[in-house]
Amino acid sequence: MSKSPSEHNLNIVHLAYERHALLSNACVVYYAARSTPSLASRLQAANCSSYARLAPKLTSANKTQRGFTLIELMIALAIFAVLSAMTYGGLRAVLNARNHSDQQAERLTALQTALVIMGRDIEQATPRSIRDVGSGGQPAMMGGGNNTASLTGAMLEFTRTGWRNPAGRARSNLQRVAYTVQNKQLLRMTWTALDQAPNQLPQTTVLLDKVNGLEIRFLDQQMRWQLLWPLATTDTAAQVILPRAVEISIDVEGWGRIPRLFGVAGTGGKAG
Questions:
Q1: How many C-beta atoms surround the C-beta of residue 246 within 10 A?
Q2: Cα dihedral: 91, 95, 97, 98 (round 10)
């Protein structure tokens, strides 16, 4: 009995579908075990050659999708360590340079402040001697030598005017001021009373650190430099004579000798 054309076409489609299903199932199994060469050969023998030809490509792709080896990780860590060390060294050098600059700036500010205070005091020196119990009296200005210029051991001591009195206390506007160097510190000493009482201690302020020494010279009225003041004379009037100018030379550690010239008001001296 012959089949109709429609039945014959249906049989062909059914056979093609079954063939396709068998090939698909076989290739699924092949994908699950594509790393097994023997299985790939069997599938190729089972009429799955079109899919089996993809086995080398799939195997190569699987090999490329791998992680880092231990050697590669060690090399990467070594490179990172070197870069970190270089970065830290550069950062530390920058921070050290900044700290050094800040310290030098602070020292420079302290030096400038000390010179301003000394200049202000010297320029306002006034010819007023003082009385004390120990020696009976001190000149208006005295200084020079090696800490032996006055009874207090100061290298420079004098009376200044212009002592501010913002509280309006009952006191004079004159003040006794002294400068000296002790333990590598530049000290400024002041007294609350001009004529000092017995055992009256001064108020001491540290103006500058790391000071190796302090040298003082005095320019007299004849424009000659003197190392000691007042001049050696029997004239009592010399006790209130002031120099025209005072030269201060501060030996600062790391900076060397720094000279400054301060004129004394009322004597024609000029600061420089």
A1: 28
A2: 140
SS3 of residue 245 by DSSP = strand
For 184, the token pair is 């590598």
pLDDT digits over 152-204, tens only? Answer: 678 999 999 988 877 777 778 899 999 999 999 999 999 988 887 777 788 99
Which of 19-28, 94-103, 167-176, 231-240 reaches the highest mean pLDDT? 94-103
Q: What percent of the chain is helix, strand and coil (3-state, nearest 5)?
A: 40, 25, 35
Strand extents, DSSP E, 131-198: 141-144, 156-160, 175-182, 185-190
Write the pLDDT tens digit of every residue in 102-114.
988 999 999 999 9
Query: pTM of the entire structure?
Result: 0.64
Burial class (CB in 10 A: 0-12, 13-18, 19+), 64: exposed
Q: What angle do CA 224, 229, 235 make, to 5 degrees?
A: 95
Helix boundaries (H) for 124-253: none
